[in-house]
Amino acid sequence: MRQIIDSAEIHRRIEAAPLLSSSASRLLQVTSDPEHSLGEVVDIVKTDAALTARILRVVNSAAFGLLNTITSIDRATSYLGERMIIGIAIDICASQLFDKPLTGYEAERGELWRHDLRVAIASREIARLAPQEMAVDLAFTGGILHDIGKSILSEFLAGTAPVVLETIERGDARDYLSAERAMLGIDHAMAGFELARKWNLPTALQQVIRHHHRPAEAEESYRPLVYAVHLGDIVAMMGGGGTGSDTLQYHMDPGYAQYLEITPEQLTMTLLHVEEEFAKMEASLLDGKDGGA
Amino acid sequence: MSNIILGVGDYGASNSPGDIVKTFALGSCVAVILLDPATRCVGMVHVALPDSNINRDKARERPGYFADTGIPALLKQMTTLGCNMRKLTVKLAGGAQIMDPNNTFNIGKRNILAVKKILWQYGMGPVAEDVGANFSRTVSVSTNTGEVVLNTPGRPPWKL
Predict the structure, then answer these.
(1) B49 touches chain A (CB under 8 A)
(2) pLDDT tens digits, one per residue of B49-107
(3) CATH at A204
(4) Catalytic pick from B4, B13, B26, B29?
(5) Model-level pTM?
(6) Does the structure's ipTM exceed the value 0.90?
(7) CA A194 vs CA A180, A187, A190, A221, B63: distances in Å
(8) Is B29 a catalytic residue?
(9) Which residue of chain B has the CA closest to A241?
(10) Does some domain include residue A16?
(11) By residue range, what is the domain housing residue A110?
């Protein structure tokens, strides 16, 4: 497998990628601090009219079936929870990245966002089941953002999927990530990490994005979080929610057992949990987008 | 002529000419495909987990989710469509895995075993299967031909 493109072009593309809105960026900073309060989240939301409007549409969407309309952003935020607020904020300002088809992975428009939402739900549930103290909503946010590098690499990978799959099957590439690196000089985890640095994301999220397929390479203190998203990604792919040709073309790192005490039975239960939660969250987010309710 | 799309945990059958019964992206889930050449009836269930004891409420609400409740539900529906249970042809697809030498999270394999065990109790077994490995399969079956076609991103479609 030979390199098909000069990776300088990819770095230029990362530089040209859209920025996060200042409210989304501040939300990610504030919520990565374990000591933060919901009040701080509300204060940031209130400075952003588009975000406020969208949150009210989501909370009043048919999917939640509330009897009385919620008009206060404080109530909407506490009803939806921090993770939904962050999901909405990221979706608004980075929809260009999440909503496009991943041509290079032969995935349709919307598949990346649906995969990310599934991974977010699974990662949070895995973090919640862990006996040690974990920032569960940070695991959710990590799940939303972990594959953002794919939206950068996708077009450079157009038409390569059949060759990549054969190369992995022959054992000439360890997994899809190694194949990306061989062809482009950079893989989707590293491209996402570069974007995360440009966005000034908190270190915890940068570590998740960079190491979600190789969690043992993350900085020691972030490993439980990175392993939670590593497993969340696998749960989503097993449940059929991948992003096209790379689905299941990765290794599971058994080292998770050192950081997360989760049994194979609990992982199986997580598969069921994701299916149920995903249907609810997807419906409410889509309703909010259509401007319904 | 219509497409009957089955989500995770759904089951369905049709004997209307031109109908396509289809399910997307199986992952570790297993599609059990039942064909009755005499009535040109095809049925499919998209099984996600091996055993309904893990969540009885879910099994009542969505029997297709589990191997032990999904297969009986599909057989019942096909019987009401006039199929002779003893003359059904069985095909299986799915049950994929992540690459994992330790087999920690072998839900795909467990699904396949559970499906075969339940089929065995009815005296049935698959004549063809495309299971395991590490890619996600989409399956479609036509009532006209009984042909089972599999798809996965990055490879040409193939018949089962």
Answers:
(1) yes
(2) 999 998 899 999 999 999 999 999 999 999 999 999 889 999 999 999 999 988 888 99
(3) 1.10.3210.10
(4) B29
(5) 0.93
(6) yes
(7) 16, 11, 6, 21, 45
(8) yes
(9) B25
(10) yes
(11) 7-290
